[in-house]
Design brief:
Elements: H1 7-12, E1 16-20, E2 23-28, H2 32-41, E3 44-47, E4 52-57, H3 61-68, E5 81-87, E6 93-103, E7 106-111, H4 116-125, E8 133-136, E9 141-147, H5 151-156, E10 171-177, E11 180-185, E12 194-200, H6 204-215, E13 220-222, H7 224-233, H8 268-277, E14 281-288, E15 299-301, E16 307-317, E17 322-330, E18 339-344, E19 347-354
Parallel strand pairs: 3-13
Antiparallel strand pairs: 1-2, 3-9, 4-7, 4-8, 5-6, 6-7, 9-12, 10-11, 11-12, 14-17, 14-19, 15-16, 15-18, 16-17, 18-19
Helix pairs in contact: 2-7
Amino acid sequence: MKRTPIYNAHVELGARMIDFGGWEMPVQYSGILEEHNKVRNSAGLFDVSHMGEIIIEGNDALLFADYLVTNDLSDMKYGDVIYSPMCYENGGCVDDILVYCFGNDRILLAVNASNTEKDFLWIKESSNGFDVNIHNVSEEYAQLAIQGPDAQRILQGLAKTDLSEIRFFKFRENVMVGGVPSLVSRTGYTGEDGFEIYLAADKGSSIFRMLLEAGGEDILPCGLGARDTLRMESCLPLYGHELSPEITPMQAGLGYFVKITDRPFQGKDVLAIETECGPERKIAGFEMVDRGIARNGYPVFDPEGNEIGYVTSGGFCPSISKNMGLALVESSFADNGTPILIGIRKSMAKAITVRKPFYKKKYKK
């Protein structure tokens, strides 16, 4: 398995390590519930160095990135970050990514870990006719995410730049964090305020330890378990669950990030039809009525027992103390308040569709 530059620190801190898409990653340290609540109430620190970084350079860098994704990048300027699905021509998702703009001639794409090589090849294959060079620079970076209401205060103790000047979905280069030049963006995957820090791979472990020391009792190292419960409460999609080559952004409820403008982009024809007519199936949020936890892949039925879809994510949501989930179902069953049944092993458990997100996001705009 691959290991991030922070691996030794995880082991020293007593993390339980698991195989996550070919990476040996911490699933928990002190416990998922404790780590989850720490992020909601003060701060948590995540090693996300397994995520991929791809650089697009050249005269057509921004133009090409705009062609790759469903969101409209045409007005991007230096320091902007935009979230977007990236689609095949059939509308299915290659990945969902963050786009960092350094100018018309340089773009950074932050991609999901298990998709990095696939994305890199797809992007290269899509670049014919554009004046660009594409580089997979993932091994050069460590990436840390500090998340929670105390994230700014803790990070500010190590940073020379005034972090209050970095607004939501903006970034700064050459921010000195513990003496290490870093790219810092006000982004994250928890529903809380926070920052993601990109820095040289060989500096990642020392800055990870420094952030934990700076936060003291107000911060905990957090693993993939808490990362998943935090993102699910906030109804943030996970690639391979709410998004996939078989699931379009419109079906995933990400229509806001699909901009049907005059510009060409991959998947536009299919997504334009779904935008106009509505998708045949949708990701719906649900709350369990009966006891039981819905897991990825469990079948979903209507009250008469007809199969109408499947669970994409499910589990206990600590912030609201309920068993919740997300399911891809026929659109006619996606409205809030619709009774459904979840096939849990050999039984049918009652559930009801509810409004998303389950937890109110607390981003600092």
